[in-house]
Amino acid sequence: MLRVPLVVPFMERDEASATLAYLAKLKDGWLMVDSGYNDQSAFDLLRSQLEALGIPLQDLRWLLITHYHPDHSGLAQRIKEASGARVIIHQDDWEILQHAVSQAQTWTLDGLVEWARSLGVPPSELDEFYRTGTFGRMLFPRGLEPDLILQGDENVIPGEDHLRMILTPGHSPGHVCLYDESRKMLFSGDHVLVEITPHISPSHLTSYNQLGQYLDALRKVRPLDVQMVLPAHERPFTHLAQRVDEILEHHRQRLAEVIAGLSSGPSTPWALASSVHWDVGPWEDMVATNRLLAVRETLAHLQFLESNGQVVSEEQDQVRLYRLNPSPARGGCSNT
Ligand SMILES: [Zn+2]
User: Fold this and answer.
1) 132 vs 78, which has greater pLDDT?
2) What is the whole-number distance in angstroms between the Cα of residue 324 and the centre of ligand 1?
């Protein structure tokens, strides 16, 4: 058996919110890729799926967390305790996750309101920003100590040189994909999904120009010899290069929209987000959470354009205003 998708749904158990965890066969035992939210019913379901497959928990040797988000990391500590599996995460995501793991009460909130204000978020919506900052805290793993903290661009699973963990930042700073070179499979986490365009949502906790990192990381996986992509949501698919091109095109269009939005003058990320097209529907009808995601996505595109010199920004009264660069550097106007 090469790989087994385990569906770890959460709450409503609808397909879209489910995390797909996978098993990869090792010389001795199994490697699990991702888990699910830290939730008793999710854990029970995972255990019963393993039982149905005839795989005892004790046969799990490693658990790779592709990125720190709770739908991927949440069950790590329960799995580790029950199985003895060693947990792997990249340093750049562990730096964020360890605050949640240590139950620091304010880690998501320090600096949040100032940051939101700087985006031009109106006072009436700041409460919602604050609320999302506290959401999901209980769904992270508790007391987790990783056993292998990855550094740098590429690592292999110890003793399994064909299982390459490739750093693919963007969706999170330390996101990794697992490439099974001998079986030509890519466990893509949330880096490449078949229909959803992964959120590139900078926050006060993440680094500058995540979109630039993400586009580079898409180009990094595109040439891999892959017959099957095994993403953490939706469903497996085969057309990696084509899907990467579609996502690159999506961002190219969004960048053009942001540039067009700035043609009428300087703008905050918030004001700009309200003027571009979003798949979830018109801005006025959007629920607050989606507006927050939209403004963060817009910021990702602004930072990308700023980093290549097409856009400049300055702070006025603690709000960051972006405008088109009247004299952009030559050659800096493409994301290809
Ligand atoms: Zn996810």
Assistant:
1) 78
2) 34
